[in-house]
């Protein structure tokens, strides 16, 4: 029986590494320029078009961090308890009123402004009231305890969010806390998505016995949605180079990017590259990534073109590692770090030098409490179950020729990838 290597049918010529490909894409792709102002309620996921400076210190005034009793910390009891008469009561939102004389306490609640003459708060759990209503303060509390000074969180004037940052819920909260009601963001990028292949049919349609339901298009649309793109679903293209070229050309006029899956390999019915060349230019297309290779990239009438492989796992991996950085660059967003974590491999694996491989794996808690990566038992790039039943990807770099069980590897959770 023949023992063909995995890539015996590959074209000659140099492969591009993932890093080179991403560096090229991000340096060549220019961010969309148009900006818009959005209210905070719709700011999550949007890309800031300009830096945000704090117009207000946070907290804006010094306030109590607890429910308790506010007092001057200058002469606190050091050894025994001491009784302090009450000089008032302050709830959150109240104006602090007149200064508190030395030797007196004010009943205060969390978030209330510290009145003049006080700088320390005793927690109510640590204080008793005597029969005349005086507060008995225990010894040993440090001056300044349980107080949140004005500006301890954010100083007024500080740059708190940078242009290119994608807003997260906590960033929206920060903008709101500083009194901003809207932010200036770049417009959403417009991405057209196609599937290709005579064997591909839309879910809900009649499927012949030799056809597959289209899964890639829905996966890609979902991932583009998470990146904040405005997506146009352009359906499935037949394996016909002229029809593909026509559709690409039409899509290019109204979109910043065209994303396809399938038809970019070296098979005779893989027409996408040829169609791109008919209406635009194909810049490079072989990337040293597994699963994944090949990926096609090009430009059609000023729109970026990325052609992902048809196998669903290859499509997923190349979207995450190649299309996503390109999309973020077009959107004017910084590329967030993938934050791989070091875990123990619970498997051994052989690989070829010179390409980066991603191994689908689940995380399992080992007996000693640490985590280990368990490889999905099968490797096919068409196995959707391998993505559904795992937690992320173990990344094996170009130099690596294999790993043994017990070795430390880098694991990237899907939640950090898409
Ligand atoms: P291709 O890259 O066109 O040669 O496709 C590689 C493999 O992926 C083939 O088995 C295709 O049937 C499959 N495939 C291509 N496009 C899709 C799709 N949209 N959804 C599911 N499988 C696909
Ligand atoms: Mg095909």
Kindly list the characteristics that best describe this protein.
single chain; 418 residues; alpha/beta; Molybdenum Cofactor Biosythetic Enzyme, Chain A; six-stranded mixed sheet; five-stranded mixed barrel; elongated; disordered N terminus; binds adenosine monophosphate
Architecture overview:
This protein has 418 residues and is α/β, with parallel strands linked by helices. Residues 1-12 have low confidence and may be disordered. A 6-stranded mixed sheet has the order 17-14-18-22-21-19, sandwiched between helices. It has helices at 18-28, 169-177, 216-226, 241-254, 272-279, 312-330, 384-388, 414-417, and strands at residues 35-39, 52-53, 63-64, 68-71, 82-84, 86-90, 105-108, 120-123, 128-129, 135-137, 147-148, 159-161, 182-186, 190-196, 200-201, 212-213, 230-237, 257-261, 281-284, 289-290, 296-300, 303-308, 341-345, 349-350, 356-365, 371-375, 392-396, 402-403, 408-413. Helix 3 runs parallel beside helix 6 (312-330). 19% of the residues lie in helices and 29% in strands. The chain binds adenosine monophosphate and magnesium ion. Adenosine monophosphate (AMP) binds next to helix 3.
